[in-house]
Amino acid sequence: MNARRIALAAAMLALAACGPSKEEQRVEQLHQICLGAVGKTVLEVEQMYELNIRIVDCSADTTRVSTLQCNAPGESLCIMGFDLPGSTDQSLCDPNGCYFACAIRAVQSDLKLHEEDHLANVCGSRWVNHQPARPFYNAPIWVPGMLP
């Protein structure tokens, strides 16, 4: 019995030494894209994620739309996000699974100027971890003419 326990412990240590799972690597890659979004255009971030951006809220009220890294006094900011695929990996989530998201900010006037080409600059980003539901699933995909 002791030999069996020792073998099991050795196998568990060997498995742990293998490093992060493919799912953990996938989520970390998505996380790094989000952290690197500031200074890029919305289009570049869309291309990196291979997803369309969703507009969540535009407001001059920075209590509703946090400025994050944006330095645009008096400007209305828009919060946008990517509806990223969820995970059921229990090293990342609870048994019911979870979702991750990248929330980015851009100045509304810049977005309005670049409605067709999505070349507005991203001025802030935030990674959202371990959400029980898809954070941006119900937000509309950005299309020309939707901004006030």
The average pLDDT value, as a whole number, equals 80
Can you count the helices?
A: 4
Strand order of the largest sheet: 1-2-3-4
What structural class is derived from the secondary structure elements? alpha+beta
> How many strands appear in the DSSP assignment?
4
Q: DSSP strand (E) fraction? A: 15-25%
Helix content: 25-40%
Question: How would you sum up this structure, described in words?
Answer:
It contains four helices and four strands, in the order H-H-H-E-E-E-H-E. It has about 150 residues and is of the alpha+beta class. The chain has one domain. Strands 1-2-3-4 form a four-stranded antiparallel sheet. The longest helix has 15 residues. The chain is elongated and about 70 Å long. It starts with a helix and ends in a 17-residue tail after the last strand.
